[in-house]
Design brief:
heterodimer; A: 111 residues; four-stranded antiparallel sheet; disordered N terminus; B: 114 residues; mainly beta; seven-stranded mixed sheet
Chain lengths: 111, 114
Amino acid sequence: GESVGLHLPTLSVQEGDNSIINCAYSNSASDYFIWYKQESGKGPQFIIDIRSNMDKRQGQRVTVLLNKTVKHLSLQIAATQPGDSAVYFCAENTYGQNFVFGPGTRLSVLP
Amino acid sequence: DSGVTQTPKHLITATGQRVTLRCSPRSGDLSVYWYQQSLDQGLQFLIQYYNGEERAKGNILERFSAQQFPDLHSELNLSSLELGDSALYFCASGGVGLMNTEAFFGQGTRLTVV
């Protein structure tokens, strides 16, 4: 498939290790955040979301942390697997407005 | 499968032509968002419709237009196409209730302008 964003920052991790992907968002009024995973040639896939009244939310193997003070969002993936290789985007949203996406990070899982 | 359907999957057309991309949102979703994704850029917001009305506008060119129909499907019209319009065009749907909710993406339409 076609790669998305040839000049994306890349994070390489060993299979089985934990991954941390970071995102700085821009709008202090944003109150809803989503992490998406995009595999080559496919549409972005919802992973996990968090609202601004929370600072941590856990899913299956994934955790999102929100630091509103510094406008920072992170996605932690536990026991990273080859199938986790993809581009990861954070998206911020203010109610009634569109989603604004970050530039993306390419996660490469090494065997 | 996200439940959002986009057609066609691939489109090849010549410069100066006009094309229409179609999106059927998930059942019950009232919002439709259109995004453009080029190789050297991330997801760029184009336009959003909510229950048939334009809700928000991004960096959408004047050559581009969109609408959402009473059955909530949406069309994105791209005219006077240029080589630089070649990109993946994604539709996403969401916004069932009063709270902002996740947007689910379709598989995209890959437009190639030659």
